[in-house]
Design brief:
169 residues; alpha/beta; three-stranded parallel sheet; two-stranded antiparallel sheet
């Protein structure tokens, strides 16, 4: 016998999912959260009006949105075209429009801060001369790739995350 969603919910009251929820001093309108999904729809790394519309439509029924990956300000963070970044005046202007559109729908939004590490393909992004940087210099398949990060490299990446987190606030 195959269970359906209705069978699984039989006797379960879903109404708490639709009630407000306190999270770290913020009140979510409900308990539905959108997980990050990479979209690649931000030319030159800047979220445009279409991105604001995309997230606003989802905010109408969600308590919290975690954005697609947004590159931090580190030269080896990038790797794919049209992924938004989370630094610089143009990017913050774009994300400000996104946040305003989401808030207008009653939603909250947090950026997913991203550095590709060993997942970086080639030398994409603004720093085309920058190679692949990961903690170990070992790829996901176990073979050597790029460079192992030094303490100075790690401090630089951590600093970029800290700055992006501060900017997100």
């Amino acid at each position: 016998m195959t269970e359906t969603t209705n069978d699984l919910l039989d006797g379960v009251d879903p109404s708490p999912l639709f009630t407000p929820f306190e999270l770290g001093g913020l009140t979510l309108s409900n308990r539905f959260v959108m997980a990050p999904m990479t979209r690649g729809k931000s030319p030159a790394g800047v979220a445009g009006d279409d991105v604001a519309t995309y997230y606003a439509r989802r905010a109408a029924s969600l308590g919290l949105i975690i954005t697609e990956g947004t590159y931090i300000n580190h030269p080896a963070a990038w790797g794919y075209a049209d992924v938004p970044h989370f630094y610089g005046d143009d990017a913050f202007e774009g994300w400000g429009k996104v946040a305003s559109a989401v808030h207008a729908e009653g939603g909250l939004i947090f950026p997913q801060l991203w550095h590709l590490g060993a997942r970086r393909v080639g030398t994409g992004g603004p720093e085309t001369s920058e190679g692949i940087l990961s903690p170990s210099g070992i790829g996901l398949d176990g073979s050597p790739i790029g460079a192992a990060a030094s303490k100075l490299d790690l401090d630089s990446v951590i600093g970029a995350y800290v700055q992006a987190a501060a900017d997100a606030q």
